[in-house]
Design brief:
The complex is a heterotrimer of chains A (205), B (654) and C (129). By secondary structure, chain A is mostly helical. Helices cover 75% and strands 0% of the residues of chain A. Chain A has one domain (25-202): Cytochrome c oxidase, subunit III, four-helix bundle (Four Helix Bundle (Hemerythrin (Met), subunit A)). Chain A starts with 22 loop residues before the first helix and ends with a helix. The radius of gyration of chain C is 24 Å and the shape is flat. Classes of the chains: A mainly alpha (205), B mainly alpha (654), C mainly alpha (129).
Chain lengths: 205, 654, 129
Amino acid sequence: MNAATTPVAEVGMSISERGPSPRTVIVGYGFWLFLLSDIILFSALFAAYAVLSGRTADGPSGALLFHRDSVLIETGCLLLSSFTCAMMSLAIEFRRKDWMLLGAGLTLALGAAFLWLELTEFGAMLAHGAGPDRSAFLSAFFALVGMHGLHVSLGLGWLVVMMAQVFTLGWRAMVRDRLACFALFWHALDIVWIGVFTIVYLGAR
Amino acid sequence: MFGRLTWDAFPVHDPIPLFAAGFVLLVLAGVLLLVTVKGWWPTLWRDWITSVDHKRVGVMYVLLALVMLVRGFIDALMMRSQLALAAGHAPGYLPPAHYDQIFSAHGTIMIFFVGMTFMVGLMNFAVPLQIGARDVAFPVLNSVSFWLTAAGVLLVNVSLVVGEFARTGWLAYPPLSELAFSPGVGVDYYLWALQISGVGTLLSGINLTTTILKMRTPGMGYSRMPIFTWTALASNLLIIAAFPILTATLGMLLLDRYLGFHFFTNEAGGNAMMYVNLIWAWGHPEVYILILPAFGIFSEVIATFSGKPLFGYRSMAIATMAICMLSFMVWLHHFFTMGAGADVNGFFGIATTIIAVPTGVKIFNWLFTLYGGTLRFETPLLWAIGFIVTFVVGGASGVLLAIPPADFQLHNSLFLVAHFHNVIIGGVVFGAFAGYTYWFPKAFGFRLHDGLGKAVFWCWFIGFWLAFLPLYALGLMGATRRMQHYPETGWQPFMVVALVGALVILAGIVLTGVQLVVSVRARERLRDANGDPWDGRTLEWATRSPPPAWNFGVLPQVSGLDEFWEAKRCNGGALVAARGEGARPLQVPRPSALGVVLAFFAFVAGFALVWHILWLAGLALSCIVVACLLRAWQTEHEVELNAADIAGRDGARP
Amino acid sequence: MDERDQRHAPSDDQERPGDAADWKSRLVKSLLGLAASIVLTLASFWAAGTHLVWGPGVPVLLAALAIGQMGVHLVFFLHVSSGPEGTNTILALAFGVFVVALVVFGSLVIMANLDAGMAGMDGLTRMQR
């Protein structure tokens, strides 16, 4: 049955038998699961949008309200910010505070630009009476796109905190794990945005 | 200053809520006084409230579940007694508006704060021990999860004293739950309580899934995991996948109510059916989240008390994962009558009957495990056998309801009520009590009094059938659910029998309390001396009772299923140490107040939002942010124990 | 700093700072991801406005481009791969995609069928007058 005291050899052992994973892997996987749950939350909002997108209650529709040019610029900002975030991750791996700061700062700026454009879009819609209380379609639009914008805002806040943590706490494992989680979060937000601009903005014809 | 909160919110004019509120406050004050007088606060704070030990967190979950069982059951007694009285022209004693709150609170509390809480508590306690881990993946997050659940509980219970609860059933369908038809605070209490505790549950799902997938002891591949761990994995995967849908849907209703959105309103293009669709896309996986851990408990109990390995381990694991996937493909059976048409109804009806198959596989495996075994009729085994008998009937009534034409007759009748109580009580509650009895000695170092345990079982078993068989009959006779009175005097005898059944269950609940007191008093006689009171098979029984904070001094090397059972046969019960494990310093997580602090501010924020006290909500949310930032800068997360500390108090069996 | 890792089995991808040789390949990978994403994004915006693609085919093309770009992000930025620890990641992702598909498409099918059975909101309000 069991050998008396000799532990089992590592050669040929399947990964599932190797025992507990390192802390970084555990943290990363837990955050990955959180991201998946977040994406499912978005999918419920997407489903509501898809179902309600035609119900404009004789009010303005997407084709009327959306400006594709600014959406293209927003998309560009977010996409570039994913790249600068990847550069930041690279800098972290090489423990270069200066490059990390540059990457983080650019990500922050691009994310803020995205938010600014989105907020002006919302403001313009509200000013024209096309707010979320106008129709089910607009409710679904503001909830879906607004939820994404809220995630971006929280992400930017998180990034500022992480920059402060690098400066005050240095490169300890705890800080690097959190930065890795931030990077996953930021890239996942871009993935959600792909869904948003395709289904909401390009889908409104 | 206080938003919409005025003195009218207090139940000064309603005798029943006034009495209930007064009673609860008295009990609460009594408990707080007792703790203060006895000087227990420092210990309570250090060892329980701020504990991040999965065993302590698990115990607190179970305690919360038991307390809420009492609250939810009082609601049940009120409903049963009202219905036993209100036949023909008799009005009963509960006004309709009040009755509506009672059945809404009953369902909400029983599902979210008894069922979920009990199962999460048992999974929290047992899973890390079963997989040879020292704690869950994220211990502080675990504490946060528990306390957020407690905050949700508090919010629901505060609605008894300040304001009112929802009158919209446990799922709060719009348009009734929209502002136009429910302008009061009841629905808001419901929504915020569930959003807050929902965050806790989701985090718990992430925590346990990560623990099971990434922290098993060396040698424990997937095919060597205990079956309870498999069902815990499936259940927590479902939590991660399903709870976001609940959060999103309740969030949409909140947007409708607070910011004038039109997701589910009657005007401006809203679609109330969308709510029903989305909420059940969560709701069906939810019932599997509840039942899968119970299935796992029964697997462990049946194998242990038959003295045989579980029959068909592999098919059990496969059936569990099949149920996990299939549970996402049947949700429309909750609204066959909403009008999706025969094709769609047919697809989901067939899918629902298919999902009964893996459950049937499990039943046969349990029966084959029992067959030929040396049965020891301890209390947990009684619960398991009672479960098999009861749950099969409930499952059969479910398959009947799965046929759309039949469901058109039976939807929202008492037949439906009988069906889901049949499977939830027969499955989840029986499983909870089996697990409670089974793991109690591991948690506290002494067994529960056995005679009283058996009495509790018989009260529940007999009481359940007395309470719900009449409801099956009534449903077939046309009785609707959620009715406060009924014109058919011929139904009254059935209602009276149902009330008697509820009283028998009440006896069982009271005896549970008595059992606890008696067991604590007799704990020396009931002492679990060697950590293995049941001659168990899995790793948790290899530790002493209760285990030390770090569970295992050295991580065990696993080379097969039921490692501890094999060790008892070959090695005198001593486990093999994993390679590289020696008496080296151990890191043990420090206690953390983050959980209770976050939950406190979450409760304040929830309460403030219910009453539209916006400045208070903003303040509470800011405090949450500050608490998280303070936590972020904490660098001393662990205490190091050296070899001497561990060796003297090691968790290995003597 | 890395004391916590002593509790767990040591592994190869530890907290050592990266080697100088690695950074170029990492940079190239990120640039490739960026380039591919830009191309796919521009293609999507073009496809939505062009008359060159047969009308009913446009949603399918947009969906394909979107899924493609999501894949690019997953591989080039999120580093989802089939490494030893990656199997759990991919299985979780698969489960997530399964649920998303069910929620979105299931809801669409169900709601469409429900609406087909309805008199329609306008019909109802007319009846109420």
